[in-house]
Amino acid sequence: MTVPRVLIIEGLINAVITAAKLTVGMSVGSMAIVGDALHSLSDLANNIVAWLAYRISIRPPDHDHPYGHQKFEPLAVFALATVLAVLAVELAMRAITDSSDAPVSEPWALWMMLAVLGVNIASAAWEWWWAKRLDSDLLHADVRDTVADVLTTAVIIVGWQFAASGYPWLDRVLTFGIAAFILYMAWGLFRRAVPILVDAAVVEPAPMIAAISEVPHVREVRRVRSRRSGGRASADVVVAVDPSLSTALSHTVADAVERLLAERFDMYDVTVHIEPHER
Length: 279
Hints:
Layout: H1 3-28, H2 31-57, H3 72-97, H4 107-134, H5 137-164, H6 169-197, H7 205-212, E1 218-229, E2 232-241, H8 247-265, E3 269-276
Parallel strand pairs: 2-3
Antiparallel strand pairs: 1-2
């Protein structure tokens, strides 16, 4: 199994779930269920965007992208978060302004929603397992959205039954609650993607400087920077050595620093610049 295949299967599942929720929501007159259907529709859109982003991110470096395409993956995560945030605001506005009648309950509709909930739970567990096995940030982001769908669907089923039994205000309250929860999920995705997109530091400089200082012939560590691109961390450092060192020995020092950062700090790509130390 690969990330694209997982996303394709999840997309097909979300398409069926969206159709089922829309059918039930429109039939029984529940704004909350219709809102949940829109959430599932966003899941489907997210699967499509994520699939396209992954296909781009695994491309090797080229003339226009010499550092590779790994940042397309967190960019897609950012896009997914934006979609969720917009959806949350829309649902909240509908919960405040909608004045429709209380929803009704039908046995066939209840069984359909329970079946949707079961499919959602199985889908979330399956995607989470593959996200861990494939170590994909994109799948981890997508599975959070699927888990949100499971929780909101469960709450909506209970609230729908109460609303249809004489508590119509529950439908609005649940819709507003769903909006708040979706917004919270979007915030989590923003926090995951933005640090990568803005090149936030992966490791604090102090422990890296201490480790590099242990390398033979390193007289001074002048700069240490780290960042993450997709699932990979990289660093560039500037170290000073004795100016009397030969070019070959200076190169050996640079190789030692690269190996150290790769092994101790799990750096995929390390650039080392050697400068003469001023006596």
